[in-house]
Amino acid sequence: ARDMGIPVPPRAMERNKPRDRMEDVTTKELGFPEGTELTPKLLRGYVKQQHADGYDPLAKAPELSKGVVPNPAFQDEIQRLGQEISSGRQSLPSTFKSSSEAIKLLSDYGYASLPSGGKAKIPPRQPIPADTAMRAIKKLRDDASTNFDSDKPEQKTLATVQKGISNALEQLIDDNLASSGNQQLLQGYRDARTRIAKANDV
């Protein structure tokens, strides 16, 4: 505006120092040179590289040759995500009918609808092939990002579930690797997971 001869109020010219400091910290944590502008394109490439370094090798790792085995913690989290949605549908089915897509998605991961207040033993889900789990995490996160930008409440609900499932899958992979004893593979995965989370928070 100033170059065009339009006066710019001093307040508009001031830099947001707390925000700048936060960006400098994030830039350093991600390993970029000081002053690097963290553009969406740069961050997408960064996340892609982290997936290639820390996630893709797991697809063919001997430690996961039998697949990613769901454990009680994973099943509990899937049930929790589903119950948060289904509780509303049980009381007000017409009001919350738009959440059916989220419930259907959760059923892929072993969600079982239970009677209100009821408890039942959820049968263990079969192992998920490692390469399928990696692709699922990426797709769930991409879909969640798209749905969070929607102005439709049902899409935002679906986004919350998609993000929740991807987080649960990542933790499940971490648990499977921890029990395998391969600390190098586990640490590489954890480092990539942490960097991706920081990049997604920018």
Global geometry? flat
Number of helices: 8
Strand content: under 5%
Count of extended strands: 0
As an assembly, this protein is single chain
Given as residue ranges, the uncertain stretches (5+ residues, pLDDT < 50) are none
Order of helices and strands: HHHHHHHH
List the helices and strands and how they pair.
Elements: H1 10-13, H2 17-29, H3 40-55, H4 72-91, H5 100-107, H6 130-148, H7 153-180, H8 183-200
Helix pairs in contact: 3-8, 4-7, 5-7, 6-7, 7-8
Structure characterization notes:
The protein has 202 residues and is mainly α. 62% of the residues lie in helices and 0% in strands. The chain contains 8 helices and no strands. The chain has helices spanning 10-13, 17-29, 40-55, 72-91, 100-107, 130-148, 153-180, 183-200. The protein is flat. The chain starts with 9 loop residues before the first helix and ends with a helix. The mean pLDDT is 85.
